[in-house]
Amino acid sequence: MRTGLYAGLCGLLFIWLSWKVIVERRRSKVGLGDGGDPDLQRAIRVHANFIEYTPFALVLLALVDVSSGPDWLVHGAGVVLVVSRVLHAQGLGATAGYSRGRYFGTLGSWIIIAGLSLALVANAIHAALN
Predict the structure, then answer these.
(1) How many folded domains does the chain comprise?
(2) I need a surface site. Which of 75, 86, 119, 130 has the fewest CB within 10 A?
(3) Angle between helices 71-94 and 38-66 (to 10 degrees)
(4) What is the mean pLDDT of the chain?
């Protein structure tokens, strides 16, 4: 399955973001919650945002993959997803305010989720009509 490559890369990114939370917890000596520490809050939020968006996008990607979606769509969406999640993590990880990485990371993630969703809906309609 072509999605495996992108799921694997996202899994590695998940571990990296988890590690960043652990490092911030050790630095701030906060075992549960965020203790009001802004750096820990941001690390937790970056990790949580990844968890909120990535699994859903990967499910959509896998569904397009197993429904014989074209290579260009599966690989294009996979690359954009991974790059978008890295950009978002770097952007939000650097500042709680506006950043290009956060903006383009969010935009790319939304485009992938919308595009894959539309591809699946179109595929289902096409299958129903034939």
Answers:
(1) 1
(2) 130
(3) 180
(4) 94
Q: Do the Cβ atoms of 10 and 81 come closer than 8 Å?
A: yes
Is 33 within a domain? no
Which residues touch 32 (CB under 8 Å, ≥6 apart)?
none
Give start and end residues of each alpha helix (H) in the chain.
3-28, 38-66, 71-94, 100-129
What tokens does 5 get?
A: 């490559």
Classify residue 44: in a domain, yes or no: no
Q: pLDDT-derived band of residue 95, with 50, 70 and 90 as boundaries?
A: confident
pLDDT at 96 over 80: no
Task: Place 34 in a pLDDT band, splitting at 50, 70 and 90.
Answer: confident
* 27 occurs within a structural domain: no
**Which residues are CB-contacts of 54 (< 8 A; sequence separation ≥ 6)?**
10, 13, 14, 81, 85
Task: Look at residues 118, 56, 63, 107 and name the one whose alpha carbon lies nearest to residue 83.
Answer: 107
